[in-house]
Automatic annotation (TrEMBL):
Keywords: DNA recombination, DNA-binding. InterPro entries: DNA_brk_join_enz, Integrase-like_cat_sf, Integrase_catalytic, Integrase_recombinase_N. The keyword Cell inner membrane does not apply. Pfam families: Phage_integrase. Residues 51-238 form the Tyr recombinase domain. GO terms for biological process: DNA integration; DNA recombination. GO terms for molecular function: DNA binding. Transmembrane segments: none annotated. This is Tyrosine-type recombinase/integrase. The keyword Ribonucleoprotein does not apply.
Length: 249
């Protein structure tokens, strides 16, 4: 095995840089053991550096962003992507969980209710969604037992790679139209922020999104904007100002 051969092999992971970095690390260790055992005179992986793209800072999604991205996804014929964006905005679940949802099992269309075991905590939760989202999900026309979110390009349930690929196409179009370039996985954190803005307590937020109390507190302490909405909600809860008071009144 030569260094050019190693580089050629690692090129197979170009679209997944984190995996490429891990594979290179394992190969480096294996080749190091081979050198130590006297089976090789050199380590062909030594000196190969894998640079990971910088992780963008969290940008909080707003309702206008959800509207823009879901509309563009619908325009592109990616109705499942549009529905997933709206669903994460409403209930803040993990994308990997959404990919496993089955019509008639995890989602009761008649009641507009999701009922499922959260993957990390194992807790069984029941969450109702808006009438608007119920309409979007109804338009998907899924049969009971069928994956709720299907990749329109393949006809199969989404995997992580395909979902990321389709979302990037949507994001590119949104950016060209003057919208913000946002990250899909950060939509879940944004749901936490929006719930806090609405005056939800940490236990209430955690019961919806599946985060631990510690995770909710961590997200809020790091990312919650110190804006007038949060401050006003706090004063209303304390009984210091009436509900109808507005800063612009």
């Amino acid at each position: 095995m030569t260094q050019p051969a190693v580089r050629s092999f690692l090129a197979n992971f170009e679209k997944t840089p984190t995996t490429r970095k891990h594979v290179a690390k394992v190969l480096r260790l294996i080749m190091g053991e081979a050198v130590a055992a006297g089976w090789r005179t050199d380590n062909p992986v030594q000196g190969i550096r894998i640079r990971l793209p910088k992780t963008p800072k969290l940008a909080i999604w707003e309702q206008s962003d959800v509207d823009a991205y879901s509309a563009e996804a619908t325009l592109q014929g990616r109705h499942s992507v549009a529905a997933m964006i709206i669903l994460v905005w409403e209930i803040g679940q993990r994308l990997t969980d959404l990919q496993q949802f089955k019509a008639g099992i995890d989602y009761d269309a008649g009641r507009g209710v999701f009922s499922f075991a959260q993957s990390k905590t194992g807790a069984q939760v029941t969450i109702a969604v808006s009438s608007m989202l119920r309409g979007v999900l109804a338009d998907l026309c899924r049969s009971d037992g069928e994956a709720l979110f299907l990749d329109e390009a393949t006809g199969n349930a989404f995997d992580t790679y395909r979902l990321s690929h389709e979302f990037r196409r949507v994001r590119t179009a949104v950016e060209r139209a003057g919208g913000r370039g946002l990250v899909l996985r950060q939509l879940r954190h944004s749901c936490v922020i929006q719930l806090a803005r609405a005056g939800c307590t940490v236990p209430e937020i955690a019961s919806i999104t599946g985060h631990t109390f510690g995770s909710v507190n961590g997200i809020l302490s790091t990312y919650l904007p110190r804006d007038g909405t949060v401050a006003r909600n706090a004063q209303i809860k304390r009984g210091l100002i009436p509900q109808e008071d507005r800063p612009d009144a």
